[in-house]
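Session log. Operator J.P. requested a structure for one protein chain; no other inputs attached. Running the standard single-chain path with token output.
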Amino acid sequence: LNRLSIAEVLNRLATSNSGLSPDEARRRLTQFGQNVLTGPSHYSLLRGLTRHFTHFLAVLLWIAAVLSFAADFMRPGEGMATLGWAILGVIIINAIFAFLQEYKAERAVQALHRLLPDKAWVTRSGQSVEVVRSDIVPGDLLILEEGERVPADARLIEATGMRVDNAALTGESKPKRRTADPAGDGHWLDIPNLVFAGTTILSGHGRAVVFATGMRSEFGKIANLTTTVEVSLSPLQKEIIKVTRIVAAISLAMGASFFVIGLGTGLGFWISAIFGIGIIVANVPEGLLPTVTLALAMSSQRMAKRHALIKQLSSVETLGCTTVICTDKTGTLTENRMKVDRFYADGLVIEARESCFFIRGHLVSNTDAERWRSFFDALLHCHNAKRVRRSDGRFVVTGDPTEVALLEFAVEHGLAHRPPLRRMGELAFDADRKRMTTLHWSEGHLVAFTKGAPEAVLPLCTKTSLHGEIVPMTQDERLRILAQSRTFAEQAYRVLAVVMRDVAHQPEHIEVETIEEDLTFLGLVAMMDPPHREVPEAIAKCKQAGVRVIMITGDHPLTALAIARKIGLMPEQTPQSPNGFAPVIEGSQLDHMSDRQLRQLLTPSRLGEFDPVFARMAPRHKLQIVSVLKEMGEVVAVTGDGVNDAPALKKANIGVAMGIAGTDVAKETADIILLDDNFATIVNAIEEGRTVFDNIRKFATYVLVSNVPEVVPYLAYGF
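Structure written below.
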């Protein structure tokens, strides 16, 4: 479809510019099915309740209760029935308590669901109509506007200034330009005339014809991977089963032995049978089940207060056993929003933090900052981002993430208090020009502000602003600016050049040739999706606790490496890892690695310095890494927010989904949901899990040891 012209696309999908007729849409809905993801099955109340009555320890208690009632039937009046009812009470109360905890978490999960838009606008029989997403079919013409999520995979037939966020599918936060023109082959998700279900329109608008819906979409194909992943038991569940089997074997052996001893000493068959049953029941640790459940439940409540929602109680203890965290970058380690970190002006690099400016660590006064007034005016006006008042009265900025970052920078540093200049015109961003220009009326004349890629803007500059004065730009100055731009880019910053021009006379027509020439360079802006403030400290805590953190992202290698260095995952200078591999491994390299090579790559180095960063990773790569780590005996926690993370979330010992930015496929698959999308919350949860593990171990020791005095009276009676 990407190679075809618009007319050929419409013909191939048997539709037209006026869209499908209602009758044809209903026919195709019957043929192709609803536009929904089947994904993981929803929570069943009956299945959830039954599970707490039928696990291995509960079965052992059921057997103990039956044996108690049997003993009471054979010899009434000795209190065995009371013991039986007590054991039944333990089973029922424990099951209901655990069920209510998980049901409460499930209700919270349902409230967080936000995968695809509930409704979307389409063209049918020449009319724009709003339909529920599940009724969208191949051949429908989607009407796409800024801020909307795409409801199905589609080929664009109209696109104006469109950029999309594919992070939910690829993990890469950088916006992607989209156009309706025919395009050549390439990576399917990078083809510029295709949009995919679940992705977001960041800017622009257009129309697209649907070619895949539901499980046939890219979302559906990736979500389908989760059905091939087998869910394993948690470490706690494995240990409880192991302990229960040992206790059951010892109890049965002791009961049978003392039954035989009783017969041998002449106690008689029925007395010997009751004696044996008493030994068996006395050995059953009926206090272990409520103790474990109570400890996990109390811990889950504490974790909820710390923004971690536990879907299954056993997940609490699993976190405490975690030895490796495989974490996504965007939205987990970082804030998932672009932010101006620094800028270059007057030959200086100025850092912007905490509403202040710093040069080499020294605070810049407001008076000194006035020399960059023209630069700040350009940032404040050369964009299409908007400040919108929400229902709660607060203002939010909407639009393209890059332009949002510029406006937020201006607001944060108090630059937006001046009356805005009246806009007189605009030369929109163009992929060929790689720049955007806006014209404004300022103090009786026109001024043009331009921002764009440095390599596209600098050749148009003939002057530069230095210390508040306009001077001719020399070749040396041009080379210095380009060198600084490259330095920013190597540090994984997104770089924009900002320039201006005084327009002497108002032109009859706003054209590139008459406006974007003889420009004055003002400065460079360096932006990045910054790490959460708490992340570096959280990474340090993990290292101290012996927990390895491995970044697995779909983002660009340079961006991933820069963030890894900022948060302490990677030292500043890393020419090669101690085990002989490069510090960043891309998905294409992983495709050519055997499991043995990957195991060697993931084996902790003797020097204990660092693990490699994995970039440009597809869902199958994440799944492969998690599988190999588990084969190596590691207890693996995986974080993620997109549908591309779902297979790895399910394969991990414990999956951790993002509650704010996460898709519902990720939330359904995960065991824990972070309500604040912050990596530091995981570290807090691991601390809580280790505390629970210690408490359960102490409780279990006490409960098992307390069985000894219960057995002693029976032994004394026998002898």
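Operator note: The first strand starts at residue 119 and ends at 124.
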